[in-house]
Specification:
The protein is mainly alpha-helical and 283 residues long. It folds into three domains: 3-99, MazG-like (Helix Hairpins, Orthogonal Bundle); 159-233, MazG-like (Helix Hairpins, Orthogonal Bundle); 239-281, no CATH class. The chain is built from 13 helices and no strands. α9 crosses α11 and α12 (235-259) packs across α13.
């Protein structure tokens, strides 16, 4: 970090402290960890969006917004006497040093795949150590709780991302299909169960989706996320790409209809499908 970098970082910290001061910004002063957490998540997604679009100017701005969120949380914590920004930076420095012994220690060079395995092993050891410390400090009732390999997967993660992390944790202790084909078979099995539940619901007459359909759709989505993991595909990124493709093609259909003097919403499904295929062929 250059002196200019350090100066601008200190400036950011001063700005944040000023915003939270008694005579600072009323909105910033009334915020808490919980109230700004949604903004933190939103900023992370905006970073991902800028990366996906290859927009470097926007990426710079969004990374700044995300950094501000880190500084904001650290300032609130500092005011509560919990920790400050220096402690946050120190914690990640310590973690990176600890999790890269082959880089900062005497370990032999590793491939990217070997590093990924080592990273997960070190994380697992850290979780086990943390669980042991919590167990030692817990009272009798808490000490009876059985530690799980799924401990520490945040409930607040987007559902698709959390499904991936849960299945990865389970796979680390052997609860996993051996081949991707078996995962694909599981997707087919869950789809068949969705169809069965839907047929039973239809036979029961009109009404809202049944609890069985809800449950089977959830199982299908989890199985699909697990298949993506087995095929080494980022399910979240794949779905974002599919969303983008659908949006692009749908807008293309609307544009073609308008060029031909047609009202897209008035077309029947067969006509709309012909437009879809035309747009698809033109890509």
């Amino acid at each position: 970090m250059t002196q200019i970098d350090a100066d601008r970082m200190r400036e950011l910290l001063r700005i944040m402290a000023r915003l939270r001061a008694a005579d600072g910004c009323p909105w910033d002063r009334q915020q808490s960890f919980a109230s700004i957490a949604p903004y933190t998540i939103e900023e992370a997604y905006e970073v991902a969006d800028a990366i996906e679009r290859g927009d470097m100017r926007q990426l710079k701005d969004e990374l700044g917004d995300l950094l501000f969120q880190v500084v904001f949380h650290a300032q609130i914590a500092s005011e509560a006497g919990a920790f400050d920004f220096a402690a946050v930076a120190g914690a990640i420095c310590d973690k990176l040093l600890r999790r890269h012994p082959h880089v900062f220690g005497a370990g032999a060079p590793l491939t990217a795949a070997e590093q990924s395995i080592l990273w997960e092993d070190i994380k697992a050891a850290e979780r086990a150590s943390a669980e042991a410390q919590r167990g030692a400090a817990a009272d009798g009732a808490q000490a009876d709780a059985v530690p799980s390999h799924l401990d520490g997967v945040p409930q607040s993660l987007p559902a698709l991302m959390r499904a991936l992390k849960l299945s990865k944790r389970a796979a680390r202790v052997g609860f996993d299909f051996e081949h991707a084909g078996e995962s694909a078979d599981k997707v087919a099995e869950e789809l068949a169960e969705v169809r069965e539940a839907a047929e039973q619901s239809a036979n029961a007459g009109p009404g809202p989706a049944t609890a069985a359909i809800f449950e089977e759709i959830g199982d299908l989505l989890f199985a699909a996320a697990n298949l993506a993991r087995k095929l080494d595909v980022d399910a979240e990124a794949a779905l974002r790409s599919a969303n983008g493709k659908f949006e692009r093609r749908f807008r293309g259909m609307e544009s073609l209809a308008a060029q031909r003097g047609l009202v897209f919403a008035d077309l029947n499904l067969a006509a709309q499908e012909r437009l879809w295929q035309e747009v698809k062929r033109g890509e």
